[in-house]
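Deliverable D4.2, example record:
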Amino acid sequence: MKEPELITIIEGPTPDFQPSPQPWLQSIHEGPDDKIVAVCQLRTMNGLGIQERSQRAWQEGRPVRLDYPDDMRMRQQVDVVALRLQELDEGPLLQLWVSLPLELTEEEEEEEFDEGDDDPRFFG
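Output generated by the structure prediction step:
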């Protein structure tokens, strides 16, 4: 297997992965594993370097992975499907579309569900 290109979060909180608002993104990342495409936004001081390294890796057929600390400060990695760099007044913003294992997103939903609440999955 080819060496992946890593986008490493050294310090800061765990990225906030949100379901992608573009449903067509899921169709370009189909495969044998149950995964969902999510998006996260990161501030960076080296956005152009990250973008160039990622594009080079994809051209070489290598995967790009986001390496980040989870809530327990354990290192985790997820595959990056796409990225976009934006220049804002506050500084560069890197948007990453990542492939998350479906069981990871289901666990997060279950943690957010309070037993005193009605489960919205059962009500239209």
